[in-house]
Specification:
Number of strands: 12
Shape: globular
Number of domains: 4
Strand order of the largest sheet: 1-8-9-6-12
Strand content: 15-25%
Order of helices and strands: EEHEEHHEHEHEEEEEEHHHHH
Number of helices: 10
Helix content: 25-40%
Bound molecules: zinc ion
Oligomer: single chain
Largest sheet: 5 strands, antiparallel
Distance between the termini: 38 Å
């Protein structure tokens, strides 16, 4: 990365009056409407990295014909897949449309992913989830004249970059027309499951922080966790909670009764205590748990409901914050042992660990 950019001719327009707003080499004024379009690299093929860390290498199969895969004969489907692909440990039926095959090694999962013959024969399409192979971070104070593409072209990073997307802010003029204005924050997606601490753009240092996806609320049924485009629930009114569109409501928004909390506000209001709680929970969730383990637990509940204790431990060991707390606890235990002559017992060690964790959780609130 980064080295692909050719050196620009010696810059002789560095004087202030010649800078940026006059003629910026990055302003891309010729293609203004595309400037803030999400930039994705060409022919990117999602793969598991060989040193991708300790998680399950799942390949997801979906039907390419009209019959949902989950309705097929799973036993014979499993036998076929096992015959054609090496290294399958087990299978999971994810939902009506998707099944997952879990591979021993990343390389074997990648081979199955690229085995188009098997996929054609079985009328399936194989994919791997972005959450296990990619991670998105945010950088701030990126000049707004830079297009997503020029940011990409200027980036150097220890990780491969697969997409660049500037955050846009919705704005409404006096006539009620909405438009999107660029902000100085930019999301960068890396082709690896862990975030780098920084990137450089045209040699400038930018700190990378974790991206917290927004809380989604459906504008059709008003429930949380999905968007209206895919909603199969019945329409509910954000003013009164009955089954009609809010535009057909006989009530005034000042008489609104929130269907989530019964408060006097519309059901999508930022005032809603339920919404505030969801936003808070979302922040905590994305702060403390890596995307990969979130995805494992939530999206692929095992058919066998018993989870092995080692699964939980592996999840925790992927979490940097958890490891930091363990290290802090060990340091405390060692220093207590040095200053105190009485031998440490397991109860004392346990108390030190619990105290360290307690201090950390009060600090983050
Ligand atoms: Zn919905
Ligand atoms: Zn209504
Ligand atoms: Zn409410």
């Amino acid at each position: 990365m980064g080295s692909k950019r050719k050196k620009r001719k010696a810059d002789d327009n560095c004087s202030p009056e010649n800078s940026r707003d006059v003629d910026s080499p990055d302003s891309d004024s010729s293609m203004d409407e595309d400037k803030y379009k999400v930039f994705k690299i060409d022919n990117y093929c999602r793969q598991y990295p060989e040193d991708g860390g300790n998680f399950e290498y799942i390949v997801i199969y979906e039907s390419t014909d009209t019959r949902p895969l989950g309705d097929r004969d799973l036993m014979s489907l499993g036998a076929c897949l096992k015959r054609q692909s090496k290294g399958i440990k087990r299978f999971k039926r994810i939902n009506k449309y998707k099944v997952g095959a879990i591979f021993e090694r990343p390389g074997l999962a990648n081979i199955a992913l690229n085995n188009t013959k098997v996929q054609k024969d079985l009328h399936v399409k194989a994919t791997i989830p972005a959450t296990l192979t990619e991670i998105t971070g945010v950088i701030k104070n990126v000049p707004i004249y830079m297009s997503n593409k020029s940011i990409y072209n200027g980036i150097s990073s220890s990780r491969d970059v697969v997409s660049v997307r500037r955050f846009m802010r919705r704005s409404r003029d006096e006539d009620g027309n909405t438009s999107f204005l660029p902000t100085q924050s930019v999301a960068i997606t890396f082709a690896c499951p862990t975030l780098p601490t920084n990137v450089h753009i045209n040699s400038w240092y930018f700190e990378v922080s974790a991206y917290t996806p927004p809380v989604t609320q459906c504008l059709k049924c008003l429930r949380y966790g999905h968007i209206g485009k895919f909603c199969k629930n019945t329409q509910r009114c954000s003013i009164c909670g009955e089954n009609h569109h809010f535009k057909d409501c006989t009530k005034n928004s000042t008489e609104a009764v929130c269907l989530h909390c019964n408060g006097n506000h519309i059901a999508i209001s930022a005032e809603c205590p339920i919404k505030k709680k969801k936003i808070q929970e979302n922040k905590i969730k994305h702060k403390t748990v890596p995307f990969s383990s979130l995805f494992n637990e939530k999206s692929f509940p095992s058919l066998n409901t018993k989870t092995k204790p080692t699964d939980n431990i592996n999840t925790l060991l992927q979490n940097d914050d958890f490891l930091k707390l363990i290290i802090a606890s060990v340091i405390k235990i060692i220093s207590v042992n040095k200053t105190d002559d009485s031998p440490l017992n397991s109860e004392g060690i346990k108390n030190i660990i619990l105290d360290t964790f307690k201090i950390s959780s009060t600090n983050t609130n």
